[in-house]
Specification:
Keywords: Apoplast, Secreted, Signal
Organism: Theobroma cacao
Helix content: 10-25%
Main location: secreted
Pfam families: Phi_1
Structural class: alpha/beta
Subcellular location: Secreted, Extracellular space, Apoplast
């Protein structure tokens, strides 16, 4: 891309901050998702890079975190590139890996948790703007004496905010988003994502289906006509809901890291990406707020993939470009 057009894109993205956001709200307002094969989806490749090289993932824990919640999130991230009983998190990632760049290179299957930074002093306060995430990354990579590596070659940064941190538009229009850093703030361009813990602020908004939104105006659907909320497989609605959002953002930042690769539509400031197309789908037959056919463990906790250390998770399906439909390894066909 020419230098001028890239600069214009940077400016446009800076002033259209709602792009690349993830929210559960859409699924309760006649959201379109495509569990069956569809030719209506105009998902296109726009010639930009995907994350094809083995990826070093860095977590920035912002605020005060429950160690049990941290362990659950780490185990999910370890599961992306580790074996587990089928259907596994790594099997789910195989759908994401189907996406390629212009050289034919697939998205990587190697994601390594390579560093963690604990910003327990709330270096940028308890209320954050979207742009604050880049300053948080800057703090993490320049902090003394143990900074995170500044890795523009194959680094991916995950900013996770604790339950007491308020973020611009969090719980109203967004549960998470991905973006890329600006050299004027961080020094280099590299992809990152932010996800907030919603367990105390808005579980009905960002921890579905383990909590039900009050604004929906209807009871939660279930296979037996009841109104029971699905139980979280790792014991906490906030962290289990957060994991599905992390999965969503990782799929999209890997397939569209600089907002010029895989998305539907002609406007990169408001793209529909590979997980947006499948919002709220976790199993066959899902739609309209019903997650679809998922597994239940002996305690009645819902899940659709297995992870390391016997963990189980519920993660959202993504768009399969070969089958041209939303898909996950727990699909019944």
């Amino acid at each position: 891309m020419h230098k001028l057009s890239w600069y214009v894109l940077l400016l446009s993205l800076l002033y259209f901050p709602l792009a690349l956001s993830w929210s559960q709200d859409t699924q309760f307002n006649q959201a379109e998702n495509y569990e069956g094969s569809s030719d209506l989806v105009n998902l296109e490749y726009h010639m930009g890079p995907v994350l094809a090289s083995p990826t070093n993932l860095y977590i920035i824990w912002y605020g005060h975190w429950n160690p049990t919640h941290q362990a659950t999130i780490r185990d999910f991230l370890y599961s992306l590139s580790s074996s587990a009983p089928y259907p596994s998190v790594a099997d789910w990632w195989k759908t994401v890996r189907l996406y390629t760049d212009q050289t034919g290179s697939n998205i990587t299957g190697s994601i390594s948790l390579s560093g963690e930074f604990y910003d327990y002093r709330y270096s940028h306060g308890g209320y954050l703007s979207r742009l604050s995430m880049q300053s948080i990354i800057k703090t993490a990579v320049t902090s003394y004496p143990r900074p995170l590596p500044l890795n523009p070659r194959n680094g991916l940064y995950l900013v996770l905010t604790s339950s007491d941190v308020q973020v611009q538009d969090f719980c109203r229009a967004v549960c998470g988003f991905h973006y890329f850093t600006f050299p004027t703030i961080v020094g280099v361009t590299m992809p990152y994502a932010w996800i907030g813990y919603s367990g105390t602020q808005c579980p009905g908004m960002c921890a579905y289906p383990f909590a039900w939104p009050n604004y929906s105006g209807k009871p939660p659907p279930s296979t037996n006509g009841g109104n029971n909320i699905m139980r979280a497989p790792n014991g906490d609605a906030g962290v289990d809901g957060m994991i599905s959002i992390i999965a969503h953002e990782l799929a999209e930042v890997s397939s569209n890291p600089l907002v010029n690769a895989w998305y539907a539509g002609d406007d990169p400031t408001a793209p529909t990406e590979i997980a947006d197309l499948c919002l709220g789908l976790y199993g066959s037959g899902g739609g309209g707020g019903y997650v679809g056919k998922v597994y239940k463990d002996s305690w009645g906790n819902g899940y659709n993939v297995n992870g390391v250390k016997g963990r189980r998770f519920l993660v959202q399906w993504v768009w399969n470009p070969v089958k041209r439909r939303c898909f996950g390894p727990n699909a019944m066909d």
